Amino acid sequence: xxxxxxxxxxxxxxxxxxxxxxxxxxxxxxxxxxxxxxxxxxxxxxxxxxxxxxxxxxxxxxxxxxxxxxxxxxxxxxxxxxxxxxxxxxxxxxxxxxxxxxxxxxxxxxxxxxxxxxxxxxxxxxxxxxxxxxxxxxxxxxxxxxxxxxxxxxxxxxxxx
Length: 161
What we know:
Layout: E1 4-12, H1 15-19, H2 21-32, E2 40-45, E3 52-59, H3 62-65, E4 76-82, H4 87-90, E5 94-101, H5 108-119, E6 126-134, E7 140-147, H6 150-155
Antiparallel strand pairs: 1-3, 1-4, 2-3, 4-6, 5-7, 6-7
């Protein structure tokens, strides 16, 4: 599969979502994405702050995301270009999203070798990991890690604040 674009939407988790996340997420996707349809859809609440959730839609190209309403609504929306298909990481039991904002004067090319080292570490508890750059925010990078469990993520030194 060619490089993919992930549309990452942060949304407030409602009581309806807590009660039936699959129906509520389907409604949200239906409102945001009239046409075309994304290739994959993932969603879930944050572990650290269960009042917030993520809806991640995977597209073949950034141009496909332009037909969505997500960017025009009052959600925090990130469009991230990954060099590889992110579905293996997004399909993991636990998904970690790490947002990096470059300091003034720093470039993506300066941080890229460090992110390459992080995502290439050999760990038995990571199902898949990768990083990508924000399409609309030049100073932002996103690392995506799919873990086999929450415990594995908590014990790892792969990503620390």
